[in-house]
Specification:
InterPro entries: AAA+_ATPase (IPR003593), ABC_carbohydrate_import_ATPase (IPR050107), ABC_transporter-like_ATP-bd (IPR003439), ABC_transporter-like_CS (IPR017871), P-loop_NTPase (IPR027417). It comes from Nocardiopsis gilva YIM 90087. This is Sugar ABC transporter ATP-binding protein. Keywords: ATP-binding, Nucleotide-binding. By secondary structure, the protein is an alpha/beta fold. The protein has a single domain, classed as Rossmann fold. It is built from nine helices and ten strands. A hairpin with a 2-residue loop joins strand 9 and strand 10. Bound molecules: adenosine-5'-triphosphate and magnesium ion. Magnesium ion binds next to helix 1.
Length: 263
């Protein structure tokens, strides 16, 4: 892959402490336009905390986040969303009792045109369902036929697809996913992996956290390896195999951090 010089999104020296626990110990990250960056690391390595900093859910104690090379403050989820960054967190934030379309538009509901929508704030359910189908179709989620179906009646994979579709529909620059295939079976996982590839095809950059090495090696352009609150290496699937990646992740093998993308 041809890596452009300026990262779209960068983190430098992020530190986050929770009392005596150091979740992030000066971690860096670079995400380049149009790439899928996988983030791997053992339990507690700080992966979720890192992406929470990038999605405005957690404010780091120290460090800097840059977008297009310039510093940004992503102090709230809204600030991150306004910057074009959408996140699917590890604990999936869908509302089971609502239907698919309402979940997709949660917090961004479409109002009816004219006075009815502006003054009475009447929701345009018809348009939301049409748009929901369009978004799901665009991502190739053909197994969902009725956007009026309650999310609690969907399979795990379909639920995950709704969450990914929501992020892809509203993220204009970056989509971040924390363990999107963790709870899924083989078929459902592959549907979500395909979905992630389509999100990249649509021009967005993707950060995906996963413990599943075959999945990581299947879709990632680059792999960020997190250990004890820091990035210890960034590798590519061509130059590093799964055994080595796991060895770096667990500390069994150390590596001078390769400067992938610094060329
Ligand atoms: N809100 C919090 N309060 C206290 N400690 C926290 C909090 N969030 C995270 N931590 C701690 O920070 C460390 C990093 O947690 P984090 O959730 O980022 O790890 P992770 O790499 O995502 O792990 P996993 O693979 O298990 O999801 C852990 O030791 C965790 O216990
Ligand atoms: Mg996590």
């Amino acid at each position: 892959m041809n890596i452009p010089n300026t990262p779209l999104l960068e983190a430098h020296g992020l530190v986050k402490r929770y009392g005596r626990v150091t979740a992030l110990d000066g971690t860096d990250l670079e995400l380049y336009p149009g790439e899928i960056l996988a983030v791997i690391g053992d339990n507690g390595a700080g992966k979720s905390t890192l992406i929470k900093c990038l999605s405005g859910a957690v404010v780091p104690d120290e460090g800097e986040i840059r977008l297009d090379g310039g510093p940004v403050r992503l102090d709230t989820p809204l600030a991150a969303r306004s910057a074009g960054i959408e996140t699917v967190h590890q604990t999936l934030a869908v509302s089971p009792s609502l239907d698919i379309a309402s979940n997709l538009f949660l917090g961004r509901e479409l109002r009816k045109p004219g006075v009815v929508g502006a003054v009475f704030r009447t929701l345009d359910h018809k348009r939301m369902r049409e748009e929901a189908l369009r978004h799901l179709d665009a991502l190739g989620v053909m197994t969902i036929q009725n956007p009026g179906q309650a999310v609690e009646t969907l399979s795990g994979g379909q639920r995950q697809a709704v969450a990914v579709a929501r992020a892809a529909a509203f993220g204009s620059r970056v989509v971040i996913m924390d363990e999107p295939t963790a709870a899924l079976g083989v078929r459902e996982s592959h549907a979500v992996l395909d979905l992630i590839l389509r999100v990249r095809e649509s021009g967005l950059a993707v950060i995906v956290i996963s413990h599943n090495m075959p999945h990581v090696f299947e879709i990632a352009d680059r792999i960020h390896i997190q250990r004890l609150g820091r990035r210890v290496a960034t590798v590519t699937p061509d130059e590093c195999d799964m055994t080595d990646a796991v060895a770096i992740m667990t500390g069994a093998m150390t590596l001078e951090e390769p400067r992938v993308g610094d060329a």
